[in-house]
Write a structure and sequence with these properties.
By secondary structure, this protein is mostly beta strands. Helix content is about 0%, strand content about 35%.
Length: about 80
């Protein structure tokens, strides 16, 4: 996402799940959403400027340049 506004959702602004990967690049605007502006499940990753989104709820998020996400997928074959 780049130069986007996510607003007035009844739940989360953006939901990442099921091994999703999302890039978020400023300028971004999140407002009026019922839940977190960005919510990720345990197996999804957010990158870019995602760490600057106030109130984000992602375990696997790159919050600095060159920092790799900590993502382990158990029981894969």
């Amino acid at each position: 996402m780049f130069d986007m506004t996510v607003s007035n959702n009844t739940e989360e602004g953006v939901l990442e799940q099921n091994l999703s990967g999302g890039g978020f690049y400023n300028p971004l605007t999140f407002s009026g959403n019922g839940g977190a502006p960005l919510l990720c499940d345990a197996f999804s990753v957010a990158f870019g400027d995602a760490g600057t989104i106030q109130g984000e709820a992602c375990k696997n998020i790159t919050k600095g340049a060159g920092k790799a996400p900590n993502l382990r997928i158990p029981n894969t074959h």
